[in-house]
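Is acetyl coenzyme *A placement plausible here? Inputs below.
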Amino acid sequence: MTRSAPGVFIAGTGSYAPSRVVSNDEISTYVETSDEWIRSRTGIRERRFAEEGETASTMGAKAAEVAMESANVPASEIDLIIVATLSPDMFFPSTASLIQTQLGINKVTSFDLSAACSGFIYGIEVASNMMRSGAFRNALVIGSEKISSILDWEDRTTCVLFGDGAGAVVLSNTDTENTGIIDSYTGNDGSKAQLLCLPGGGSAIPPSHDSLEQRQHFLKMNGREVFKIAVRWMEQSARIMLERHGLKPEDINLIIPHQANLRIIDALARTTKIPKDKFFVNLDRYGNTSAASIPIALHEARQKGCIQSGDYVLLVAFGAGLTWGSTLIKWH
Ligand code: ACO
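Reply from A.M.:
I modeled the complex. Tokens:
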């Protein structure tokens, strides 16, 4: 199916990174690992960890403030807030509700969206379709994560990979055709849910002494399996978007992949045939920030002047669910 969907564009971007920088050397004082192992297997050199008192909502609100300023859209004109996160402040109310209040926004539609590392792309898809209905004019789509709060420091295969931070965009309506958010594609294979999950704390395994002892409240991942599936579905997500719009790999000016692992990104460059120098990569400084990774990278790419008017920008993600997705943007 080909969809031409003018009407919504990214009016502003923002990000927030906690000030605490945690190097691979520091990580190797907590678990048996090394800077060499982490760099060669993942490309990560350092990550940020939230300070005491910082949460998904406080970081998300800060990223949103930057995005609203860059869009020149005041809080009073925001009428929709969607927050993608796998590390919400609490189960309920939503992190979006908390961010709404921190931004001084009153009584607008606000909710969280659970699609792990693909959450930002899911959020863009949901927000832009809600806006195309005409019911909303300016939306905040935020990815915010405090993954350090769910890392198991007895599991070196996962705790070295992740970091904290937040990214945000303001989506606004536009009358200019064929510009802005052109299309999104999303998918999910729930049969592989167990490969990457946080088993405890929900209705399946409510908190108990046993669940704590069994370390059920930490992130669990079968990294090797996730790696293989990530490459396959990210390639498919990129290919579907190119095919739907009659684009060739060389037509893409910038691709912003989910920042999980440099080897996944290298494999994606090989399989999509999109030249490696068109991939924006900042995972060396942030690690995997899940739903925050793409909006943080998008904001940095703009700050570095990597995106020009008329450029095709492709976002591609993969995450727990297992979820995947892509968004094609023609920059305004
Ligand atoms: N330090 C040192 N050695 C380690 C570490 C570590 N931190 N972790 C594992 N090892 C060891 C293992 O024990 C193993 O040793 P063995 O051969 O003696 O058994 C060896 O290193 C190799 O382990 P592998 O798991 O095969 O390592 P691999 O090359 O697959 O890399 C990694 C592991 C980095 C996790 C990789 O599989 C990966 O990146 N997977 C994808 C994960 C991912 O990107 N997930 C994002 C999903 S997004 C979301 O929704 C959260």
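Short version: Residues 7-177 form a domain with the Peroxisomal Thiolase; Chain A, domain 1 fold (CATH 3.40.47.10).
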